[in-house]
Design brief:
single chain; about 240 residues; alpha/beta; 9 strands; globular; binds S-adenosylmethionine
């Protein structure tokens, strides 16, 4: 059963009320983020049913994301160290990967729990949801603490990109996420931790026009608006 607002508020140390710039709203159906103020867009919630897995359907193994992660090379154990709204994690799980989803924002972690609970009772989503495990942690430390047996084959990173000037072009989901968590200025440290933990490879999602997060890219896979840069993990067996 969905926890009530009081319970979530006390767990996360959030005040109850409706006068903050961003609210976490508990409705009978779901947890959602709401921006307040004039002209604010509608609520955002994690809707795994709306993630476009179909275009990955028949050609799934030729998708830039699956090529970058190394599905064809047998990679199946993946950590998504920037889980956010779970879209990419759900795509990876739909492709058959076991995905540990790490998120440091307590609010997003609660929304993720809520989304997986809803997904588990939807026959169209349940199988992929069962392959997803949630962890609330700063992935820089969490990855560093993994013992040899627990190390993933691949670590996937999608740190928050610097704001674009044409902000109207940025989806409302990303705008709200940015308001909530800010920019991931420590993304290079996260990449170093990911390289130290992955036995095979690290994948970094970048806007198509942006430079690489760091030197050492061993391969790049272009999507429509994004690019997936691949780095070798500690084992060097990409
Ligand atoms: C751009 S969003 C990721 C969106 C996600 N790929 C999706 O498909 O919804 C980046 C997320 O990574 C999280 N994050 C950034 N650095 C992190 C870290 N070191 N540990 C855990 N979470 C982190 C942020 O809090 C934010 O929720």
């Amino acid at each position: 059963m969905r926890p009530c607002a009081e319970e979530i508020g006390s767990r996360l140390g959030l005040p109850l009320g409706d006068d903050a710039p961003v609210l976490l709203r508990v409705t009978p159906e779901r947890l959602e983020l709401v921006q307040t103020g004039e002209g604010a867009p509608g609520p955002v919630w994690i809707d795994l049913g709306a993630v476009d897995t179909r275009s990955a359907g028949g050609a799934r193994r030729d998708q830039p994301l699956s090529r970058a992660v190394g599905l064809r090379q047998g990679v199946r154990r993946v950590v998504d160290a920037t889980a956010g709204l779970l879209h990419d994690a759900f795509l990876l799980a739909s492709m058959g990967c076991e995905v540990v989803c790490v998120e440091r924002s307590g609010v997003l972690h609660e929304m993720q729990r809520d989304a997986l609970e809803r997904g588990a009772s939807d026959p169209a989503l349940a199988a992929a949801c069962a392959r997803m495990t949630l962890v609330r942690a700063d992935a820089r430390e969490w990855l560093g603490g993994l013992g040899a047996a627990a190390r993933p084959e691949a670590v996937y990173l999608d740190p928050m990109h610097p704001a674009r000037r044409k902000s109207a072009l940025v989806k409302k989901e990303m705008r709200l996420l940015r308001l909530l968590v800010g920019e991931d200025a420590d993304a290079q440290e996260l990449l170093a931790a990911a390289i130290g933990a992955a036995t095979r490879r690290v994948v970094v999602k970048r806007p198509g026009h942006a430079p690489a997060l760091a030197e050492g890219v061993v391969g790049s896979h272009k999507g429509r608006a994004v690019r997936y840069d691949v780095y070798s993990g500690r084992g060097g067996d990409v």
